[in-house]
Amino acid sequence: MPRLIISLLAIIAIAIASYAARTDTIAISTTYVSPAPVKAVVITPDAADTYPAAQFPTVYLLNGFGGDHRSWSIICPELTTMADRYAMILVMPDGRDSWYFDSPVDPAMQMESFITRDLVPYIDSHYPTIAAPRHRAITGLSMGGHGGLYLMLRHPDIWLGGGSTSGGVNIEPFPSKWKITDRLGPYETNKQRWHDNTIINMLDRATSGMHIIVDCGTEDFFYAENLRLHQAMLDRGIAHDFISRPGTHCIAYWRNSILYQLLFFNSFFSAQ
Q: Which of 120, 114, 112 is nearest to 136 (CA)?
């Protein structure tokens, strides 16, 4: 009898494994970023294998400064479970400390163009996505929080869901930090460029169809700027969810935050 029980458990484990979310590491050829190719992790829900004709919404998760395409899977191992639970595809590209700009001073770092012109078309052609802005969202942590809101605001034809956790939503107070000068040039001689590429100064791009979530810990060094962004969106009547709770700029906060954000985006997708 014990041997039979062990055999049955093994069969169940194999069956469960065969219907678990699939994680791929892919490499995207590009002329916008050097060195190429650029890697990305893609998590596809098990429902894609169970229902081959089905299509799924997509959430792009952007890493922070110093991270790469592997960061989110390390921060939140539950992402595979979340992909299955919400039947969504998760895409995590290597942000290369780019701040997700097309750099006007570095032709080898055109990350915005890579993501919008190479990565998104590749994902839509190789994975069972619903290729429509109402079924795409983009968010990230820290530098990636800036990137999530920046790319959504600039490309509502691609994403209508956007978010940020512990995001660098205002870069102007940090003129010597995190290689931003490598992407935009020194602040003192490029103030207008820095101003134009700061989230809080881009809110005139927001549309009524966007679903936005912003999250930042009360002890985070970006907290004051996130509060300013929240108030600016309130003043403009821009619908959004704003979450703040005790926490610093740390992995524990981001791991908790992304669970709320995926729930938020799932509700957005489900309403379509």
A: 120
The number of CA neighbours under 13 Å toward the Cβ of 7 is 4
Tokens 């093994």 correspond to: 10
Residue 99 contacts by C-beta under 8 Å, 6 or more apart in sequence?
A: 111, 143, 146, 147, 168, 171, 178, 179, 180, 183, 184
Dihedral pair phi/psi, residue 62, rounded to 5°? -105, 135
Q: Under DSSP, is residue 14 helix (H, G, I), strand (E, B) or coil?
A: helix
Provide the 10 A C-beta neighbour count for residue 85. 14
Q: Three-state DSSP class for 26?
A: strand
Whether the full predicted model's pTM is greater than 0.85, yes or no, is yes
pLDDT, mean of each 10-residue run, the chain (272 residues): 36 42 96 98 95 95 97 97 97 97 96 98 98 98 98 98 97 92 94 95 95 98 97 97 97 97 97 80
